[in-house]
Specification:
Blueprint (H helix, E strand, L loop, with lengths): L6 H12 L7 H6 L2 E3 L9 H22 L7 H11 L3 H28 L8 H23 L4 H16 L11 H10 L6 H33 L12 E3 H26 L31 H9 L2 H16 L1 H4 L5 H29 L2
Antiparallel strand pairs: 1-2
Helix pairs in contact: 3-5, 4-5, 5-6, 5-10, 5-14, 6-9, 7-8, 11-14
The structure holds protoporphyrin IX containing FE.
The site of protoporphyrin IX containing FE has 28 residues, from helix 3, helix 5, helix 6 and helix 9.
C-alpha cells in the first residue's frame, strides 16, 4: 500500500489490475490473443483438458440424475438398475467415474505445469487462487460422489472420513476447536452416517458444488482471457501462434481424441473392476466393516501418510501445504523458473510414489 492511499483505493487498484475490464471485448480476448510456442507449450493444454472432463461430468451426471434415487433404501438399487437395465446406462456411469478420475488427474497436472511455468506471476495471482479453490472443490466432488452408490465400503469410508474431520478439532486452539465438530454435524446430519448424510452429500454433489464451481470457473477463465497466456519460460520466446483459430483448433482436436479414448475405456473396462470390493454389495448396517477400506486413488497421497505417521504431523504438513498453495504468487515471487521446475519434479515424484506404491510402502513400514 502506498503512503497516503486508503485501503479502499489499494483494494480497488489491485482488483482493476487483475480484472482490466477495458480489455473485456472479443478483439482483445480472442482475436488478438497469442499463445507462446516453446518446449513447455504442452502445459497450455492441461487447463482445457480439465475443462473438457468437467463438461463430460456435467452431461453424464445429468443423465444419471434421471434414474438415481438419493434414499438409503433405493440408492444402491437405482445404481444397479442403471448398470443392468437402462440402455447405455452402464456406459454413461462408466464415463462418469472414469472422467472424474481424469478430471482430478488433469487438474493436478495443470496446477503443476502452471507452477513450473510461473503462470501465477502478477497480474495472474487471482487466476492462481481461483485455480487452487477449484482443485479443492474437485476433491470435494470426489468425496461426496463416493457415498452416493451407498455400498458397504463407501458408507464405511465416509464414516472414517468424517471422523478424521472431527479429530482435527483436538489440535485447534480455543473456539476454532469447535469448527470441525460443527462441520461434521452439518455434513452428517444425524448421529451416524444415514439418510440425512446421503441427502446432504447429494445436495452438495448435484447443486451446491456445481454452482460454486460454475462461479469459480467463470472467474478463472475470464481472468485467463483478459490477461492472455503467460510467457511460460525465462527467455521471451520469438515464436507464438494465434489463439483463434489455431490454438483453439488444436485444443478441440485433442478433446475429440480424448473423448474417443474415454468412450473406448468406458466401453471396455468398467471402472469398478479396479475397486477392491464388489460394487453390487449394498450397505448393511449390521454387517461388519470390510477389511482394507480405502478412499479413491486420488486421496492416497494423503491417506497412506495418515496411516503411517502421527495425525498431528500430517495435519500440520497439510495445513502448511494449503497455505503455501494459496500464497504461492507471493511466496515464490522471486524464485527462478529453474528452481520452480525442481520443486515441481519433487512434488510430482511424491504424488506418483504415494499413489502407485503407497500400499507397498505402508506394508513395509507396518508389516
Ligand atoms: C476445475 C479445474 C480447472 C479448470 C477447468 C481450469 C481451466 C483452465 C483453462 C481452460 C485455462 C487456459 C488454458 C491453460 O493455460 O491451460 C487455465 C489457465 C490457468 N489456470 Fe486453470 N483450471 C482449473 C484449475 C486450476 C488449478 C488447480 C490451478 C492452479 C492452482 C490453475 C491455475 C491456472 C493458471 C495460473 C492459468 C493461467 C495459465 C497461463 O496464463 O499460462 N487452474 N485454466
Amino acid at each position: 500500500m502506498k503512503a497516503g492511499q486508503s485501503v479502499f483505493a489499494t483494494v480497488s487498484n489491485f482488483l482493476s489490475e487483475r480484472f482490466p475490464v477495458e480489455h473485456m471485448n472479443f478483439q482483445h480476448m480472442v482475436e488478438k490473443k497469442d499463445v507462446p510456442v516453446h518446449n513447455m507449450s504442452w502445459g497450455y493444454y492441461t487447463g482445457g483438458l480439465t475443462l473438457f472432463f468437467l463438461m463430460v461430468q456435467v452431461v453424464t451426471g445429468l443423465f444419471l440424475l434421471f434414474y438415481y434415487q438419493p434414499t438409503v433404501s433405493d440408492a444402491h438399487l437405482s445404481v444397479e438398475f442403471i448398470n443392468k437395465h437402462v440402455a447405455g446406462g452402464a456406459l454413461i456411469r462408466n464415463m462418469h467415474t472414469w472422467s472424474a478420475s481424469c478430471m482430478i488427474f488433469f487438474a493436478m497436472l495443470h496446477l503443476l505445469t502452471s507452477f513450473a511455468m510461473k503462470a501465477f506471476e502478477k497480474p495472474r495471482e487471482l487466476t492462481w487462487i481461483f485455480g487452487v479453490l477449484l482443485l479443492f472443490l474437485t476433491f470435494t466432488f470426489g468425496f461426496t460422489g463416493y457415498l452416493l452408490p451407498w455400498n458397504q465400503i463407501a458408507v464405511n469410508a465416509t464414516k472414517v472420513g468424517l471422523q478424521s474431520v472431527e479429530a482435527v478439532g483436538e489440535y485447534l486452539p480455543g473456539a476454532l476447536s469447535q469448527l470441525p465438530h460443527i462441520l461434521r454435524e452439518t455434513f452428517q446430519g444425524e448421529a451416524s452416517v444415514g439418510q440425512s448424510t446421503l441427502g446432504r452429500f447429494y445436495a452438495l454433489h448435484v447443486v451446491l458444488l456445481p454452482l460454486a464451481l460454475l462461479g469459480l470457473i467463470s472467474l478463472h477463465l475470464l481472468s485467463v482471457q483478459l490477461h492472455g497466456m503467460s510467457r511460460g519460460v525465462d527467455q521471451p520466446t520469438k515464436k507464438s501462434e494465434r489463439f483463434f483459430p489455431f490454438f483453439i483448433f488444436k485444443d478441440l482436436s485433442l478433446w475429440s481424441i480424448v473423448f474417443l479414448l474415454l468412450l473406448i475405456l468406458a466401453w471396455c473396462i468398467p471402472f469398478d473392476s479396479f475397486l477392491p470390493y464388489p460394487l453390487l454389495a449394498p450397505y448393511n448396517a449390521l454387517g461388519s466393516t470390510p477389511a482394507g477400506i480405502k478412499p479413491e486413488w486420488y486421496f492416497y497421497f494423503l491417506y497412506y501418510p495418515l496411516e503411517m505417521l502421527p495425525f498431528w504431523l500430517i495435519l500440520l504438513a497439510t495445513g502448511l501445504a494449503v497455505l503455501v498453495l494459496i500464497f504461492t504468487p507471493w511466496i515464490f515471487k522471486g524464485t527462478s523458473r529453474k528452481t520452480l521446475g525442481l520443486i515441481t519434479v519433487l512434488a510430482s515424484l511424491y504424488l506418483v510414489v504415494m499413489t502407485v506404491f503407497g500400499e507397498q510402502i505402508y506394508h513395509m513400514v507396518k508389516p
